[in-house]
Amino acid sequence: MSNYIAITRSSLVEETKVGCDLYLKNHINGDIRYVLFCRGDEIYSKARKGRLIEQNIEKLFIRTVDYASYFRYQEKNLQDILADEKRSSEEKSHVVYNTAKYLVQDLLSDPRSGLNTKVKRATKWVDNTVNYILHDKNAFSSLLKVTSHDYYTYTHSVDISVLALLFGRHIHLDIHNLKCLGIGGLLHDIGKVEIPLDILNKPGKLTKGEFEIIKKHPEMGIEFLKEKEDIDEKSLEVVIQHHENYDGTGYPNGIGGKDIHLFGRISRVIDVYDAITTNRCYRKALTPYDALVEMSEKMENCFEQELFKEFVYFLGPHSQGEK
Ligand SMILES: [Fe+2]
Ligand SMILES: [Fe+2]
């Protein structure tokens, strides 16, 4: 496997430091060589960009080990990337999704260190993403396409946030509420970092004791987040209530009906939908259509019916194809 990965020229923002070295691929006497083009601590200037355009070079390369720092760079420049009219919605949606993926990976790998900074990064990502969704009419379908097929806590968290933002827009939430919902989505399973992996990824049925441990993750999540003043109460509702069922049979508090905050009711629907439309170690992903059928036939009690119907309507034509 090559130690280098291609990136596109258009993913770079001029007059910025990329933070990792950029290479060009050269063919020399039949050999492939990667030649340093711009060091990570140098400015990717207008002049450098001009040289690439002159030579018609669309692809640059970074070392595989620098992939995370490249997405960190994109995260920092997300606002400019999303405002750039030359970039397609597909490209923007990829950047939106991948930056969040690395951000949440960072957050979940060690939530005890620098949580304030990470929450600030999450807030900034949500601000930019909300802005993108509100202003680009193609954002909806292109973002829906980039959600993950495989389940990991971090991809699942990004999926929940993206789906919640799109659905929140669909039901006309105002900007402040959208942002709270989006942040709640990114953070909702943060408590899972406290659950042993062999329980979290167990292929077979969980024992009663194991399930009791899993059931603690909403409260553990709140433990991490409760003293962070930058997080709105409403975002915390997503964290604590996303496993509460509408008929009161959920956890951790077994509350039901409208005692569950709107964000809790929304996240319950989206959390189940994402969990069953992604590949798990114990079951293969259902298609969106089959997922909605299963949710309406076997899990009716979990959801507020009006909201669930709205969710089906929201996915509409998107439920026929792949997720
Ligand atoms: Fe959860
Ligand atoms: Fe979840």
What features would you describe in this structure?
It is a single chain. The protein is mainly alpha-helical and 323 residues long. The chain has 2 domains: 67 residues, no CATH class; 243 residues, Hypothetical protein af1432, CATH 1.10.3210.10. 53% of the residues lie in helices and 9% in strands. It contains 15 helices and 6 strands. The strands form 3 sheets. Strands 1-6 form a two-stranded antiparallel sheet. Strands 2-5 form a two-stranded antiparallel sheet. The model has no long low-confidence stretch (mean pLDDT 92). The site of one fe (ii) ion has 4 residues, from loops.
Short description:
The chain has 323 residues and is mainly alpha-helical.
Largest sheet: 2 strands, antiparallel
How many domains? The number is: 2
Question: What is the number of helical segments per DSSP (H or I, 4+ residues)?
Answer: 15
| Share of β-strand residues | 5-15%
Low-confidence stretches: none
Distance between the termini: 29 Å
Mean pLDDT across all amino acids = 92
CATH superfamily of the largest domain: Hypothetical protein af1432
Structure ligands? fe (ii) ion
Helical content band: 40-55%
Structural class comes to mainly alpha
Highest CATH level, the class of the largest domain = Mainly Alpha
> Gyration radius, to the nearest Å?
21 Å
Mass-distribution shape = elongated
CATH-assigned fold name of the largest domain = Hypothetical protein af1432
How many beta-strand segments?
Answer: 6
CATH-derived architecture of the largest domain: Orthogonal Bundle
Strand order of the largest sheet: 1-6
